TrEMBL record:
GO biological process, alphabetically ordered: spore germination
Family: Belongs to the GerABKA family.
Subcellular location: Cell membrane; Membrane
Organism listed in the record: Halalkalibacter alkaliphilus
Transmembrane segments: 308-330, 404-424, 430-454
InterPro entries attached to this UniProt entry: Spore_Ger, UPF0353/GerABKA_families
Top-level lineage group: Bacteria
Pfam family, any one: GerA
Membrane-related topology note: Multi-pass membrane protein
Lineage: Bacteria, Bacillati, Bacillota, Bacilli, Bacillales
Any single Gene Ontology cellular-component annotation: plasma membrane
Keywords of this entry: Membrane, Transmembrane, Transmembrane helix
Protein name: Spore germination protein
C-alpha cells in the first residue's frame, strides 16, 4: 500500500500476525527472540551480537548480499564497541540521541518503535540495530545491490540523442531523472506496493506544472492496488488504466530518461518501480504514441516528414490487408485494368479465397515475429529473415498464396515496425484481423464501418480524465504545430492542453 496507509499502521506499537502478537520491549533478549521468530529460519539473515561501551548489549541484523558490509563494520559496529561513556547518566532516549549524533558516523539513519516498519526495513536490505534498555529500533540504510550498468535501451533505439537508459534499481533511475532536471520543484515521493513483495516505487512530478488533482488521482489508484506481488510496471498499467477493455494503451512506458523529462515538463506524472527499467507516464493521448524522443533533436523538416510517414504506416498496418481482400473479392472494378490483370495472373491456381490467403500469411508472419523475439538474439534475427524468405518463397512456388499477397503482408509488417510505441503497434496488429474479417464479409463498406467504430471508441476514451484524441477531438488547431507535423521549436511556446497544467507557457523557449 501507499506510504500514507503504511504510516497509519506504523503508529501502532503492536504487530499482529496469524500466530502471535509482538510487542516492543526494553529487554534485548525478548526483542532478539521476537525477530528470530519471524525471520530466524532464513539462512541469509545475519545476526551480530556485541557490546556498546564494553557492557551494554546490542544486536545487529541484516540480510546477507543486500548490504554494504565494510560500511557496517567501520561506521556502525566499531564506533559502538569503542564508545567511551561519559559520567553523565543517559536515559534511553538520551542514549539513542547521543549515539546517533556523536558516535555513529552513518548518514542515513532512522528510528522506529514498531515491528512492522523494522521488519519491513530489514527485508528491504537495511540494517536493524537493537540496544538493551532501548525500546526502539535503529535503522541504517546500508543497502547495496548488484545492478546492471546504465546501457542503451534496446526497446527504443534512436539515431540521435542520449544513449543511457533506465535499469532495474529504483534510486538509479531517480538519479538519472534528477541529473537531467535540476528544478527544485521536481517532486519525488516514495512508497511500497504489494502485500508481500513490498516493492518500492516513486511518484515523480513537477510542482507548479502538474495539476495536483492529477497527482492525487494517480496516488489514489496506486493506493487501491491490493495484491501479493507487483514485479513489473505492466501489472500496474493494467490496474490503473481507465478502460481495461480497450485495446489501446492509456499509459505510456519508456526506458529513456530524456523521454521521461519531456513528459514531466508536459505536466505528466511518472511512476518508477524498483526491479524494472520501464517507467510509466500518464496521462497520454494518441498523439503521444506516434511521437519519438528524437523528433525534437532533428530539424523540423525532417521530423515532420518522418511523423507523416508514421501516420501513413499506422494506416497501412491496420487497413492494407483488408483493402487487398476487399478489392480482390468484391471491388475488382476499382482496380486499374493492367493491375487487375496482373493480380489475376498471379492468383491463377491459388486454391484459397483472398481472406484465407491473407489470414494464413498474417498468422505465419506473426508466429515468425514472436519466435524471433523469444529466441536468442543471433538466432532470432536469422529466424525472422530466413524464415520469412523461405516460407514466402515456398508458399508462392507451391501455389498456396500469390506473390502480391506476400508483398502486401511484408509491407504491412514493415509498417507496424515504424510505430515508435511497441504497445500500440501490437494494438494495430490485433485490429488488422478485425478489419480483415469485416472486409471479407462486407468489402469496403466493412472497412468503413470498422474505421468509424475505431474513431467512436477513441473519441470516448480517456486517460486519467484527459481526452485521448486531443487535439483532433476536441479540435484545437493551435496545437497542430506539434501533431502530424512538427513546427519549428521557436513557434511552440505553449504546452499541450492535455493534461491540464498549472503553467501553460514553456519557459525554455
Amino acid at each position: 500500500m501507499y506510504r500514507r496507509l503504511l504510516k497509519k499502521l506504523n503508529e501502532q506499537k503492536v504487530r499482529e500476525t496469524d500466530e502471535y502478537t509482538i510487542e516492543v520491549s526494553k529487554d534485548i533478549a525478548t526483542m532478539v527472540e521476537s525477530i528470530n521468530n519471524i525471520v530466524g529460519e532464513s539462512d541469509d539473515i545475519v545476526q551480530r551480537n556485541f557490546k556498546v561501551g564494553a557492557h551494554l548489549k546490542a544486536s545487529l541484523f541484516f540480510v546477507d548480499g543486500l548490504v554494504f558490509d565494510s560500511g557496517i563494520e567501520d561506521r556502525i559496529i566499531k564506533p559502538l564497541i569503542y564508545f567511551a561513556e561519559t559520567n553523565k547518566e543517559f536515559t534511553a532516549e538520551q542514549l539513542v540521541e547521543h549515539v546517533l549524533t556523536e558516535v555513529i558516523t552513518y548518514i542515513e539513519v532512522a528510528e522506529t518503535d514498531t515491528f512492522d516498519e523494522a521488519i519491513l526495513s530489514l527485508m528491504s536490505g537495511e540494517t536493524l540495530l537493537v540496544i538493551d534498555g532501548v525500546e526502539k529500533f535503529l535503522i541504517f540504510d546500508t543497502r547495496q545491490f548488484n545492478q546492471r550498468g546504465i546501457e542503451e535501451p534496446e526497446s527504443e533505439v534512436i539515431v540521435r540523442g542520449p544513449r543511457d537508459g533506465f535499469n532495474e534499481v529504483l534510486h538509479t533511475n531517480v538519479m538519472l531523472i534528477r541529473r537531467r532536471l535540476r528544478d527544485p520543484n521536481l517532486t519525488v515521493q516514495f512508497g511500497q506496493l504489494g502485500r508481500r513483495s513490498k516493492t518500492d516505487f516513486a511518484l515523480v512530478y513537477i510542482k507548479g506544472i502538474t495539476n495536483q488533482d492529477l497527482v492525487e488521482e494517480v496516488r489514489y489508484r496506486l493506493s487501491c492496488l491490493d495484491m501479493d506481488m507487483i514485479s513489473e510496471t505492466g501489472v500496474i498499467e493494467q490496474y490503473i488504466e481507465d478502460n481495461v477493455l480497450s485495446p489501446f494503451p492509456q499509459v505510456l512506458r519508456t526506458e529513456r530518461p530524456d523521454k521521461t523529462i519531456n513528459a514531466l515538463t508536459s505536466g505528466k506524472v511518472i511512476v518508477v518501480l524498483d526491479g524494472t527499467p520501464f517507467v510509466l507516464m500518464a496521462p497520454i493521448t494518441f498523439n503521444d504514441l506516434m511521437k519519438a524522443t528524437e523528433d525534437n533533436y532533428d530539424r523540423w523538416h525532417i521530423s515532420s516528414f518522418i511523423r507523416l510517414l508514421r501516420y501513413l504506416a499506422a494506416f497501412m498496418a491496420v487497413f492494407l490487408p483488408g483493402l487487398y481482400i476487399a478489392m480482390v473479392s468484391y471491388h475488382q472494378g476499382m482496380i486499374p485494368t493492367v493491375l487487375a490483370l496482373s493480380i489475376a495472373g498471379t492468383r491463377e491456381g491459388v486454391p484459397f479465397p483472398g481472406f484465407i490467403e491473407a489470414f494464413l500469411m498474417e498468422i505465419t508472419f506473426e508466429l515468425l515475429r514472436e519466435a524471433g523475439i523469444r529466441l536468442p538474439r543471433p538466432i532470432g534475427q536469422t529466424i525472422g529473415i530466413v524464415g520469412g524468405l523461405v516460407i514466402g518463397d515456398a508458399a508462392v512456388r507451391a501455389g498456396i498464396v500469390s506473390p502480391v499477397m506476400v508483398i502486401v503482408v511484408a509491407i504491412t509488417a514493415i509498417a507496424s515496425f515504424a510505430i515508435p510505441a511497441y504497445n500500440v503497434s501490437i494494438t494495430f496488429r490485433l485490429l488488422r484481423f478485425g478489419v480483415m474479417i469485416s472486409s471479407a464479409l462486407f468489402g469496403l463498406f466493412g472497412i468503413v464501418i470498422v474505421y468509424i467504430l475505431i474513431n467512436i471508441h477513441l473519441v470516448g476514451l480517456r486517460s486519467f480524465g484527459s481526452y485521448y484524441t486531443s487535439p483532433f477531438a476536441p479540435y484545437k488547431f493551435g496545437e497542430w504545430l506539434d501533431l502530424m507535423i512538427r513546427a519549428p521549436l521557436v513557434l511552440m511556446k505553449n504546452r499541450p492542453s492535455e493534461p491540464r497544467m498549472l503553467d501553460e507557457k514553456r519557459k525554455d523557449i
